[in-house]
Write a structure and sequence with these properties.
The complex is a heterodimer of chains A (250) and B (338).
Chain A (H helix, E strand, L loop, with lengths): L1 H7 L4 E10 L4 E11 L3 E5 L6 H9 L6 E6 L2 E2 L5 H6 L2 E3 L12 H11 L4 H15 L14 H14 L4 E5 L7 H16 L4 E5 L3 H7 L2 E6 L2 E6 L1 H6 L1 H6 L7
Parallel strand pairs in A: 3-8, 3-9, 6-7, 7-8
Antiparallel strand pairs in A: 1-2, 1-4, 4-5, 9-10
Helix pairs in contact in A: 4-5, 4-6, 5-6
Chain B lengths: L1 H24 L3 H27 L6 H16 L5 H4 L5 H4 L5 H23 L4 H21 L19 H20 L1 H11 L1 H6 L4 H27 L9 H14 L4 H23 L1 E3 L2 E3 L5 H16 L21
Antiparallel strand pairs in B: 1-2
Helix pairs in contact in B: 1-2, 1-8, 2-8, 2-11, 2-12, 2-13, 3-6, 3-7, 3-11, 6-11, 8-11, 9-11, 12-13, 13-14
Classes of the chains: A alpha/beta (250), B mainly alpha (338).
The complex binds adenosine-5'-diphosphate and magnesium ion.
């Protein structure tokens, strides 16, 4: 399954090309470019309201850009509906709870695999694997609506990974996890890059977590990219310090 | 455990249906008719559940598919000697048609499926209140077409002399078939994907699920089952008017589904058996029954009043319905984890 997909869909690059998104009254994104490669973790940081979630929405088809394009490899996917992007290996998690509340943890994960065309047997196998990997195995039969916040975040990630993605966009997946949980979670993100050979976009406010897992970091502020570079470069970047780091969790 | 439970989720309700039918055969002829009608009504409610329960989208239009199934089956199987004189405007092809029992039921299912698919293409883009209103509009349109287009329908007349083939055997087997298909669909990848869209349509799309397509599949299947149930219905009654598959039936079947619990097939069945059983009982009471030395004769109107009050009480005390929208639990040992 995995191997067949990789030969059929060899898109190696996800790009936002000068994306602008104007809401009534607010311009959330102003000509933002972003490149996410396979086999990398790209951090996307910036204060609240910077436009990070809006960019994820535009990239995954949950919102349309006012101007600009989205490209997957050589293909312009700006007009593709979200489900089609999902099937092409481009998926996401949501900043706010979007679990299938009435379904059990296992069903949540399995149905995400079924959504992209996996067989029921394959879906079961992926669910076993992901519950193990994310430490959800004991919660298999629990309805997702009753999960504590931290577990619900992990389930979102498990569900995204169940689609066997080529690019996975994680919108604050670690928010609400405690320090002890963040380290194993960083391990999960690395394994998505290394073992699944996927590109990961990671939004988070915890700068040490970002530093620990990201290959590159892009900083947004008020809808504009103010810096791109290695975690070390970003840490030292003067505008980043004043726009973002200085303001704490913003 | 999971597999055994899965079998039980179909087997348990099926045993109940067989038990109801078996007890029904031992009763007086009028009660027998009531029991068979309860079984057919349950088939309609389960067909409704296939779409509404799994998609979470309300449909007030489902009786349209029951109606087209009933009239397709009824017109196609009523005797060809009488149709041309009773319905002079009917298309000669239909007036001269006279098909057998099995063909008639299959035709009902096919017509229900095609019609549901066709109206479903635009309808399935809607959710919430607009879906409710638009499906209701389909019901009104369907009713008026069947009632007024005399080339294909009976008009304001009664369609009579339909072979009364829905005895206990067909009512029971028919309901069991509808339940088996409903349950098979619910456990299939299509059914599971649709349930995900019910829980969260946005998140479902992130997992590659196309909401419109999954809803349309369920709507079509549900239309086929409703059409089939309509076929059983017309062969139960023997004669039918367009009013019998219109507003009352829509309200009653939706109420059954809600009272039983929208989210499970068990809920659909329990709601149907409970309300239809109660309804049948009250019908008999309104006609007057002799209890020991006294005759109990309820004033007319009591039936609907009682039904209304009971639905109200059930929904206020158990908003999720009698079953809470869950499948039948394993009777002996229940595994619980939190
Ligand atoms: N649907 C919307 N309608 C109007 N304004 C919106 C909408 N979504 C986001 N915004 C605005 O766009 C800006 C960026 O929001 P968002 O992308 O959620 O920021 P971030 O994820 O970086 O915190 C904010 O000012 C927010 O209020
Ligand atoms: Mg955000």
């Amino acid at each position: 399954m995995t191997d067949r997909r990789r030969t059929e869909r060899p898109a190696d690059l996800l790009r936002a090309v000068s994306v602008t998104r104007a809401f009534e009254g607010v311009v959330a994104l102003r000509g933002v470019d972003l490149e996410l490669r396979r086999h990398e973790v790209l951090g996307l940081i910036g204060p609240n309201g910077a436009g990070k979630s809006t960019l994820v929405n535009v990239l995954t088809g949950f919102d349309a850009p006012t101007e600009g394009r989205v490209r997957l490899g050589d293909v312009d996917i700006t007009d593709w509906p979200a489900y089609r992007r999902g099937r092409s290996g481009l998926t996401r998690t949501f900043q706010h709870a979007h679990a299938f509340g009435g379904l059990s943890v296992r069903e949540n994960i399995e149905v995400s695999a079924l959504g992209v065309g996996a067989t029921p047997a394959e879906a079961r196998r992926r669910a076993d694997e992901l519950m193990e990997m994310l430490g959800l195995a004991d919660l298999e039969e629990v309805p997702a609506s009753t999960l504590p916040h931290g577990e619900e975040r992990k389930l979102g990630v498990a569900r995204a990974l169940a689609t066997d993605p080529v690019f996975v966009l994680l919108d604050e997946p670690a928010a609400g996890l405690n320090e002890a949980e963040v380290e194993p979670f960083a391990e999960v993100v690395r394994s998505v890059r290394d073992d699944h050979d996927a590109g990961v976009l990671l939004i988070d406010h915890n700068f040490s977590f970002i530093t620990a897992v990201c290959d590159r970091v892009q900083v947004l502020d008020e809808g504009v990219t103010i810096a791109i570079g290695s975690p070390e470069e970003i840490r030292r970047h003067p505008r980043v310090a004043s726009a973002y780091l200085g303001r704490g969790d913003g | 455990m999971r597999r055994r439970l899965a079998v039980w989720h179909l087997l348990g309700p099926s045993l109940l249906v067989v038990a109801v039918a078996a007890v029904g055969t031992t009763t007086s002829p009028t009660i027998q008719f009531q029991v068979r009608s309860v079984l057919v009504t349950a088939a309609i409610v389960v067909s409704l559940y296939v779409f509404v329960g799994n998609s979470g989208v309300i449909s007030f239009g489902h009786v349209s598919f029951v109606a087209v199934g009933a009239f397709a089956a009824g017109i196609a199987s009523a005797p060809a000697e009488v149709k041309p004189s009773t319905f002079p405007k009917m298309l000669p092809f239909l007036a001269n048609l006279e098909i057998g029992n099995v063909e008639s039921l299959l035709l009902a299912a096919l017509v229900g499926a095609i019609y549901a698919f066709w109206v479903g293409i635009p309808l399935m883009r809607l959710s919430g209140l607009s879906a409710g209103i638009a499906t209701f509009a389909v019901l009104i349109i369907t009713h008026n077409v069947i009632r007024n287009w005399e080339a294909i329908g009976p008009g304001a007349k009664t369609l009579a002399l339909v072979p009364p083939t829905t005895g206990f055997l067909q009512a029971t087997v028919g309901l069991l078939i509808v339940m088996a298909i409903a349950y098979g669909y619910q456990r299939s990848r299509w059914g599971r994907r649709l349930r995900a869209t019910r829980e969260d349509p946005l998140a479902a799309q992130a997992s590659g699920i196309e909401v419109h397509r999954e809803r349309l599949i369920a709507f079509t299947l549900s239309g086929a089952l409703a059409g089939f149930a309509g076929g059983l219905f017309v062969h139960l009654l023997g004669s039918i008017t367009t009013e019998q598959v219109f507003l009352d039936l829509t309200f009653v079947t939706l109420a059954m589904l809600v009272v039983g619990g929208i989210g499970s097939m068990w809920g659909a069945l329990i709601g149907a058996l409970f309300i239809a059983g109660l309804n049948a009982f009250l019908v008999e009471l309104e006609k007057g029954v002799v209890l020991g030395a006294r005759e109990l004769d309820l004033p007319s109107g009591t039936r609907l009043l009682t039904l209304g009050v009971i639905m109200f009480v059930v929904l206020v005390t158990r908003p999720e319905g009698l079953t809470g929208g869950r499948e039948l639990s394993w009777p002996i040992r229940r595994r619980r984890r939190v």
